[in-house]
Sequence to fold (716 residues):
Amino acid sequence: MSELVLETEKLEKIYKLGSRRIRALSDINLKVKKGDFISIMGPSGSGKTTLLNILGCLDRPTSGKVILDNVDVTALSEKELYKIRRYKVGFVFQTFNLLPYLSALENVELPMEGTGKSKEEMRKRARELLRLVGLTERENHKPFRLSAGEQQRVAIARALANNPSIVLADEPTGNLDAKTKYEIVRLLGRLNTEQGTTIVMVTHDGAIASHACRVLFLSDGKLLAKEKMGLVAKEKLVCPACGREVQADHAFCPHCGKKL
Amino acid sequence: MKALGALSRALKNISRRKVRTFLVVVALGFSIAIMVSIPAGIMANQESMQRITENFANTITTMQKEINKTATLIECSTTPNRGMQTFRPGGFFGGFNQTFVDETIMDEIRSIEGVKDVIPFLEKSSSENISETINTPWGSRTVYRPAYTIMGVCLNATIIASYPILPTNITTGENLSEGDSGYILISSNLTSYFGVDVGDTVEIEGEPFIVKGVFESSSQPRTVYMNISDAQRVTGLTGKISRLYVYVSDASFATQVADVIKAMYPELYVTSYQDRLENLQRMQEMYTQTLSNAESSIAQAQATATQVIIVAVAAATLIVFFVMLYSVRERTREIGILKAIGFSNWNVMSQFMLEGMLIGLIGGVAGVLIGSIAAPFFSSFLLPQINLFGGAQRMQRPFQTQYPNIIGTQSYSVATLSPQLILAALCAAAVLGALGSLYPAWRASRISPIEALRYE
Fold:
């Protein structure tokens, strides 16, 4: 229905450990459309993080292509890749990875440095994003004064700073307690529905994965056929709890968090 | 904008590790203080050298003028003459074995062809002694020397009027005049020693004298002028003299007359105008030699100092190098984050270089602060200054007794940091900060983001 943001072709990643060759990913063909919210599930060691790192241009595949916004990023040099990471991709990590000595606001401003924005513009945009993730009151707090959930919200705001084509979230709820987990995944869902943010999220938690529009399974470095999951429809439903529109494939309402 | 953010992050990172930063800054500060103290010391040495050279030239000129005024004077003395002042009574080495001759030789000398006037003096150290502490570069010591010198002069109206035998610079009271007996003229620095002023009575060798006047003379400190007959009486040297001024009627006779006196009285030290000129020349040669020795020791000092500066620069650079290398290691994860959110290799590298430069600069400020206090100490410690110091000191001695106002006592410049030196030190500190962090920063920039993010 809409344009492709990310596409992979026969992606393969092989690690060499001494004389052994470990196939971390093989024949990954993935298509992510604009506005998608995709979950990639799989057990530990299935290659989820490797896939995400390759999609986010932090790592290179052994073979195959990654096409991001119609650009074959696998063909780009290291000097050009940082621009892709800066402008096209937003990363959210399991361990938040905020700079401990910067305030929430400064952490969000960080990716905007060197983009030609003035200090005022950066500040305005960072405030806007912190408001979006519900942390206006906390903008001057350093990470250690924020709860885990709040830190992850700052990280999400940071990922959005340069208005990336895609947000890649690597176990974003992995370090959070049960209640906060849902808050974060709901926030991602809300960004997806309200802002149209394209999200690829890696998780091993089925309940979290079910918030996505599509759930893909990765096992031993291979994507299982999506037909098997039967989660392709994108009809609109109304949440019985809050009355707002939600997508049919959501397990939880992204607005109020009630199970659908 | 980029630079501003990087700068504020660099400052935050530096202030985050306060103890480490403090230690690094102190270590850097000392290196840089040593670095600036050496040029400061060299400059001070050169300044001193220049001043000494100038003073020396002035001294020679002044002496030349003095000597030129005395073309008809032959000085006969029982002690080495005034031309070489090294062993004067009241001079640096204190008392010496004083000898005297009978005043009857005056008549014999007066009978020599061409002699116009013969003027007797009796110069003798007081029997009173004072102790004095002398500071030298090698420590201080106490010496005992006569409290003052008694100078008996011939108070004859014609002689006083014709020849400069009495001090000219009378500050209070009056000069001695014809036939004054029981009166004295004292040098200004003796007023406080005796605790007297003009009109007061003072005891000289057990006899009371009235102070008629006070004179100011730097070449004759601690001298009491009186009638020669009074002097002979109080010193118990009746009929004795210690020096004669022989004036010839024409300057062209001076050398021959001096030769005759020398032959007649081998016990006298006789100096004519010609002798004084030669003495001056010898002195000039000697001092020129000393100056050039001092100059070559300055050159040597500079060569050594350059090596010390190189060591200090290397030490400072190494400090920055290791601190930044450690910092890069410690902040591997942060580097991974920065790269993951789109920082280029250059961004990361410049971030760390900026930090290195800032540490260098802060160290530079500390160095300037330490140096501004410790520069004289460091430079005297690190420069082989003793040669110059000792050499110059030795050179100064003979002058100081006779012409202390010319050479002066404050000949040595203390090493101080000039604004240019401070600016240069700060620039150098920043540059070596950048230099020391070059490799660590480069390494930081090469860290793979996934490796870095996995780093705990």
Residues 51 and 411 of chain B are 7 Å apart (CA to CA). Residues 82-95, 386-410 of chain B have pLDDT under 50 and may be disordered. DSSP finds 15 helices and 14 strands in chain B. The longest strand of chain B covers residues 115-125.
